[in-house]
Amino acid sequence: MKIYGVTGWKNNGKTGLMERLVAEFCARGFSVSTIKHAHHATDVDQPGTDSHRHRQAGASEVVLASAGRVAIMQELRGAAEPPLTVLLGRLNSVDLVLVEGYKREPHPKIEAFRQAAGTELIAPQDPCIRAVASDTPLQLDCPVFDLNGTAAIADFIQSELGL
Asked: Domain for residue 64, yes or no?
C-alpha cells in the first residue's frame, strides 16, 4: 500500500481536498482508503442504538455489520491512542491510503493552505511536506498547486508514489 498525507491547520481545506482526491483516484481506477485524525472526542455511534448499548455496557470492540457496510468500533478505555503505523496495519490492502492530519508523522504529505485562515505554513519547517495546495500564489522551495487543482495534485501524488 502506498501512503500519502494531506495536512495543514484547521480550516485550511484539508477535508475538501481529501474528498476531491479520493474521488479523483477512484475515477482513475485506484482503490483508496482513508485515515482521518481527530483532535477532539468523536463518536460514530448513536446513543440508543444496540451497538452503542454494547459499548456502554463495557465491550472493548463492537462490530456492526450489514449487507452494505461493516463498522468496527474500538474503545480505548484509557489506553494510548494507536500510532498511525498500527492503524495502517488494520486496513485491507488497497492501492492508496490517503491520511488526513497526522502532521508529525514521517510520511509524504501535501499541505492545504488558505490565506484567510490566518495560519502559518508548516511546509518550510517540515521536509515531509512535498508540496502545498494553496488558494493564493506562494514562493516556496517545493511545488505549489492551486487548492482546487485536484487533477494536478493527484498527478503529482501519483508520480511521487509511482502509482
From this structure: no
CB 21 within 8 A of CB 34: no
Q: What is the pLDDT of residues 116-137, one digit of tens each?
A: 999 999 999 999 999 999 999 9
| Confidence class for position 48, pLDDT limits 50, 70, 90 | confident
Per the domain annotation, does 156 fall within a domain? yes
Cα–Cα nearest to 4, from 138, 134, 95 = 95
Domain extent at residue 102: 2-38+81-161
Cα 127 to chain centroid distance, Å, stands at: 18
For residue 14, the domain's CATH number is 3.40.50.300
Tell me 74's DSSP state: E
Which 8-state DSSP code applies to residue 124? G
Q: Distance between alpha carbon 135 and the CA centroid of its chain, in Å?
A: 20
Phi, psi of 76 (to 5 degrees): -80, -30
Determine if the pTM surpasses 0.85. Answer: yes
